[in-house]
Write a structure and sequence with these properties.
The protein is α/β, with parallel strands linked by helices and 415 residues long. The protein contains twelve helices and twelve strands. Bound molecules: 3-selanylpropanoic acid.
Length: 415
């Protein structure tokens, strides 16, 4: 009989909390009206949506009028990046000629600054804009001493045509938390001194951070923030925070045109059921974040202790830096040894369900994110990304450790 699987891939996706499922089911059965309709059925649906919007705003310290629902994180990130591109062209004269110090026309194009560790829904958007000659992009390498993008390196990358800085709040593979508040604070000072130049807009993708650590848009002083429901036990839709949405200072341009929903920023008849679920997931984070993060940290730390107990100095924790913070639930670990490739070890585990890196990346080659923070290829290709959840127990970890032990022994005896 198949033994119960132990899921340690919560950074890839999470199950719905039962209360979230209940909220979705109730909304689908009782608030099915068109939220734009003025009759009772429509008003009922709109009320559900407004309550969800308020819960999301509370979760990130925002005004509810600054929250917009999207189909997910990919749409949120694309919308924000495309907004910066359009805003550059709509609002700023492009300086003629070139900057001699650069010897090219890169200052004629909107310039983006990001890190070399972003999720593909930021990385590939910017890579494509650069390849098509529509924008110029600086991918600031993370420090190999901290796993973080350094403020000084971001500042050094700023040029007159810089229109946006987009850096994720916490990395999905290593869990390393980026110094967003510090970086954006320094850029705001630069914005104050820039005359007749594009104001540098500030975005962070908070997909992996929400539900695991405090996320406060006022404290971080961001202009935009991306929210992804299925990373914090919510449904697979998302939302964006836009500071003072509708103001000229922080613009937002629609990628879709239609019936005027979401104040014309994101038209399309609202997905009331999923929005209700997202709102409930946010409500639970507001209520229980401290418990969630403490529990996950306890379990993750126990996991790393047990790994070291069993595998000793063959264990390399990828993304653990003395001066950087990590998400409480993430352990990126390599078991050193010939043939112990991450995907091989996982394929010989009977009970563990995890990944070697981002679910949307190939699982049979070293992660570019680990290589980017200086993990040697021989270590990176043995990486396992283990991410614990709200329900993960110490007993689960004991099972996982035994599973990994037998998988490693099998591979080594077989080689
Ligand atoms: O697995 C992840 O890290 C996110 C989905 Se590509």
């Amino acid at each position: 009989m198949d033994q119960e699987k132990i899921y340690l891939d919560y950074n890839a996706t999470t199950p719905l909390e039962p209360d979230v499922l209940g909220a979705i089911s109730t909304a689908l059965s009782e608030a099915w009206g068109n939220p734009s309709s003025s009759h009772a059925a429509g008003v009922k649906a709109k009320t559900v949506i407004d309550r969800a919007r308020t819960n999301l705003a509370t979760m990130v310290g925002a005004k509810s009028s600054d929250i917009l629902f999207t189909s997910g994180g990919t749409e949120a990130n694309n919308m924000i990046l495309q907004t910066a591109l359009k805003h550059f062209h709509l609002c700023h004269e492009i300086t003629n000629g070139t900057d001699p110090s650069r010897g090219d026309n890169s200052d004629q194009l909107p310039h983006f600054i990001t890190s070399n560790m972003e999720h593909d829904s930021v990385k590939l958007v910017l890579e494509n804009l650069a390849e098509e000659g529509i924008a110029s992009v600086t991918f600031v390498p993370a420090s190999q001493k901290t796993g973080c993008v350094m403020k000084e390196d971001v500042i050094a990358a700023v040029r007159p045509s810089t229109c946006m800085i987009s850096i994720m709040l916490a990395n999905n593979e290593t869990g390393v938390i980026q110094p967003i508040k510090e970086i954006f604070e320094s850029i705001r000072h630069i914005n104050l001194t820039r005359k007749n130049l594009p104001r540098i807009l500030l975005h962070t993708d908070a997909a992996q951070a929400i539900g695991k650590m405090e996320v406060d848009v006022v404290e971080m002083d961001v202009d935009y923030l991306s929210i992804v429901g299925h990373k914090f036990y919510g449904p697979r839709i998302g939302a964006v925070f836009v500071r003072n949405l509708g103001s000229k200072e922080v613009p937002l341009y629609p990628m879709l045109y239609g019936g005027g929903q979401e104040r014309n920023f994101r038209p399309g008849t609202e997905n009331t059921g999923m929005i209700a679920g997202l709102g409930k997931a946010a409500e639970l984070v507001v209520q229980y974040l401290d418990n969630y993060s403490k529990h996950m940290a306890t379990v993750r730390d126990y996991l790393e202790t047990r790994l070291q107990d069993v595998f000793g100095d063959r264990i390399h924790i990828n993304g653990k830096f003395a001066t950087s913070e990590r998400l409480p639930n993430t352990c990126n670990v390599s078991i050193l040894g010939h043939g112990l490739f991450g995907h091989m070890v996982l394929s010989h585990c009977d009970r563990l369900q995890a990944s070697v890196g981002a679910a949307c990346h190939a699982q049979n080659r070293p992660s570019h994110i680990l290589l980017a923070i200086g993990i040697p290829e021989s270590v990176a290709r043995n990486a396992l990304r283990l991410s614990v959840g709200r329900e993960t127990t110490l007993a689960d970890i004991d099972i996982v450790i035994e599973d990994l032990k037998q998988a490693v022994e099998f591979i080594e005896n077989d080689s």
